Amino acid sequence: MNVDLDKIQQAVRMILEAVGDDPNREGVLDTPKRVAKMYAEVFEGMHIDEDQYFETVFSEDHEEMVLVKDIPFYSMCEHHLVPFFGKAHVAYVPRGGRVVGLSKLARAVDTVAKRPQLQERITSTVADAIMRKLDPHGVVVVVEAEHMCMTMRGVKKPGSKTITSAVRGMFEKDAAARAEVFSLIRS
Ligand SMILES: Nc1nc2c(ncn2[C@@H]2O[C@H](COP(=O)(O)OP(=O)(O)OP(=O)(O)O)[C@@H](O)[C@H]2O)c(=O)[nH]1
Ligand SMILES: [Zn+2]
C-alpha cells in the first residue's frame, strides 16, 4: 500500500484542533496537505526494499576492506515521530568478487532510515542486508545520531549522541580488523 495522503491530512487537522488551534486559520490551511507530502517523503522507505541496491555487483577481485564513512541520514524515531539524524559508516570486505557501487551503501542507509525507526534497527538492518545479499567476509555498520526526542523534549540533553554498531562475519572474531575499521571511522 502506498502512503494514504488523505488520511494523514485528516489526522493533521485533528491534531491542530486537539492542540487548540483553528485548522481553518489562514496560516495553517494548507498545513495538513504539506505534512502529508512531507510524511510521504520522510517515510518513503516503507515502500522500498533495500535489498534491491545489492542486485548489481561488479566482478572485481578485491577482498579487502571498503569503507564509506560520514553518510548523513535523517530518520524519525518510532516512539515520538520526531527526527533523529547523524552519520552512518558502512564497511565490508567483499568475497568472490562481489563488489557493489559505493552509492548503493548510502542508498541502503537512506531507505532504511526513512521509516519509523530505532537507531539500533537501522544499524542492524543495513548490516544484515549486506551480509545476506553479498555474502562478504564481514560487515561493520556504525551509526552516530542525535535524537530530538532527547533534546527538544523529555530528558532535554542537547548535544548528547548515541552510537550504535553492528559487527558481522570476520569482524566478530578478528579483533585487529575490527580495531582498524573503528580507527578509520574515528580518524
Ligand atoms: N533504544 C532506543 N531508544 C530510543 C530511540 N529513539 C528514542 N528512544 C527512546 O525511547 C524511549 C521511549 O520511552 P517511553 O518511556 O516509552 O516514552 P517517554 O515517556 O516519552 O520517554 P522520555 O523520552 O524519557 O520522556 C525513550 O527513552 C527514548 O529516549 C532509539 O533509536 N533507540
Ligand atoms: Zn523518540
From TrEMBL:
<dbReference type="GO" id="GO:0005525">
    <property type="term" value="F:GTP binding"/>
</dbReference>
<comment type="subunit">
    <text>Homopolymer.</text>
</comment>
<dbReference type="GO" id="GO:0006730">
    <property type="term" value="P:one-carbon metabolic process"/>
</dbReference>
<keyword id="KW-0479">Metal-binding</keyword>
<dbReference type="InterPro" id="IPR018234">
    <property type="entry name" value="GTP_CycHdrlase_I_CS"/>
</dbReference>
<keyword id="KW-0547">Nucleotide-binding</keyword>
<dbReference type="GO" id="GO:0006729">
    <property type="term" value="P:tetrahydrobiopterin biosynthetic process"/>
</dbReference>
<dbReference type="GO" id="GO:0003934">
    <property type="term" value="F:GTP cyclohydrolase I activity"/>
</dbReference>
<feature type="domain" description="GTP cyclohydrolase I">
    <location>
        <begin position="8"/>
        <end position="186"/>
    </location>
</feature>
<feature type="binding site">
    <location>
        <position position="149"/>
    </location>
    <ligand>
        <name>Zn(2+)</name>
    </ligand>
</feature>
<dbReference type="InterPro" id="IPR043133">
    <property type="entry name" value="GTP-CH-I_C/QueF"/>
</dbReference>
<keyword id="KW-0342">GTP-binding</keyword>
<keyword id="KW-0862">Zinc</keyword>
<keyword id="KW-0554">One-carbon metabolism</keyword>
<dbReference type="GO" id="GO:0005737">
    <property type="term" value="C:cytoplasm"/>
</dbReference>
<feature type="binding site">
    <location>
        <position position="80"/>
    </location>
    <ligand>
        <name>Zn(2+)</name>
    </ligand>
</feature>
<keyword id="KW-0378">Hydrolase</keyword>
<dbReference type="InterPro" id="IPR043134">
    <property type="entry name" value="GTP-CH-I_N"/>
</dbReference>
<dbReference type="InterPro" id="IPR001474">
    <property type="entry name" value="GTP_CycHdrlase_I"/>
</dbReference>
<feature type="binding site">
    <location>
        <position position="77"/>
    </location>
    <ligand>
        <name>Zn(2+)</name>
    </ligand>
</feature>
<comment type="pathway">
    <text>Cofactor biosynthesis; 7,8-dihydroneopterin triphosphate biosynthesis; 7,8-dihydroneopterin triphosphate from GTP: step 1/1.</text>
</comment>
<dbReference type="GO" id="GO:0046654">
    <property type="term" value="P:tetrahydrofolate biosynthetic process"/>
</dbReference>
<protein>
    <recommendedName>
        <fullName>GTP cyclohydrolase 1</fullName>
        <ecNumber>3.5.4.16</ecNumber>
    </recommendedName>
</protein>
<dbReference type="InterPro" id="IPR020602">
    <property type="entry name" value="GTP_CycHdrlase_I_dom"/>
</dbReference>
<dbReference type="GO" id="GO:0008270">
    <property type="term" value="F:zinc ion binding"/>
</dbReference>
<dbReference type="Pfam" id="PF01227">
    <property type="entry name" value="GTP_cyclohydroI"/>
</dbReference>
<comment type="similarity">
    <text>Belongs to the GTP cyclohydrolase I family.</text>
</comment>
